[in-house]
Amino acid sequence: MENKSGLFLTGPFRQLLTMDNLPLKGALPDESLEWIGDAGMVYQNGVILEVGNYKALQRKYDPGHLILQHMAEETVALPGFLDAHTHLIWAGSRANDYAHRLQGMSYTEIAKTGGGIMQTVLQTREASDLYLKDHLKQRLNRQLKNGVTTTEVKSGYALQTEGELRLLRIIAEVNKEHPSDLISTCLAAHVRPRDFDGSPADYLECLVRDLLPQVKRERLSSRVDIFVEEGAFNKTDAARYLKSARAMGFDLVVHGEQFSSGGVSLAIGLGAKSVDHLENIRPSTIKKLAGSSVVALVLPGASMGLGCGYAPARKLLDAGCSVAMASDWNPGSAPMGDLIVQTALLGTAEKLSMAEQLAGITFRAAAALSTPDRGVLRKGMVADFSLFPTGDFREILYHQGQLKPSSVWKDGVRVI
Q1: Can you give the pTM of this predicted structure?
Q2: Residues of the chain where predicted confidence (pLDDT) is lower than 70
Q3: Least enclosed by CB within 10 Å: which of 185, 209, 327, 367?
Q4: Which of 86, 253, 89, 91 has its CA nearest to residue 174?
């Protein structure tokens, strides 16, 4: 492992996009992007000390202490991407669900016939710790190759107290072993499991009584999520559950407005960090969301996987919302798992500027995850960045995700 305590200068980069000095909310023209030509970055102990002109930085710092990492090829440097909504720990496949959707079956119809989330739950319960751990690492390796250095990972495919704790413990173990940063979220309130003897409200009460206190004691997660939807949990039961979680000190996240309404108002009223999906958000609700501090986290991968319309990202931005994008990588509704491809295609469909797309997977995604130390390349931020083999940052989104990073750096260490 590279010694991070050294004083490093990496560059020169043809362009370095800082993503700095941009607002958290609202529309962003490309002209607002700040980039530095012939740039370099100085960092130590995984933290950026300075960005600027490469030659000027080389002159400024003592050459006797400076470790030069010279980039011979033409590159563009971007902050490491953040994927703020994934379900990366699971076993099995739902290719049968996908085939059924292609034949016209809906998400809820598939679930009623034995597919859907519960199929993955049964396969995940039966999988060994080693299987789950190895497959989580494999998916994270793919994330890194795509420039994603911070990944949110939800539990939610066990739906039993011990099973959910097992998933969260595996996430914690992998976070210690893998170069990526993992942000865990407890999504035990994914759906009521079919083998639970009681109502959805009864199931949520069990989670509050038996699961969440243990999650807190073991510090397995600081975030709680719930799926507010027909076939999952209604707004009344979800509000009671989230209030209990908030009283325990958890940050709140809501799956909302994917198929029906109710999740956004709940997220606003309880001060959630984000409300995720929003494919079916109403215009009047958009205005309310814009007036709040809740991040609108849109998931284009779910729209692609389900064959439905995208969340109205353009309208959300124009109304003044903070809009971030995430992959929703999961075995059922969003199996692709390529954040930059999904972001670029959403941008085409919704007419999003490149600035808006990049903001949505850097500092605005960081806001959704309460990780203010990343998503921007400036002094004091973590040295998470990717280098793309081009001299023009516009090429990255122009190629719609097919231009991959040539190298990726996490905490100042090259990991790809």
Answers
A1: 0.97
A2: 1-3
A3: 209
A4: 89
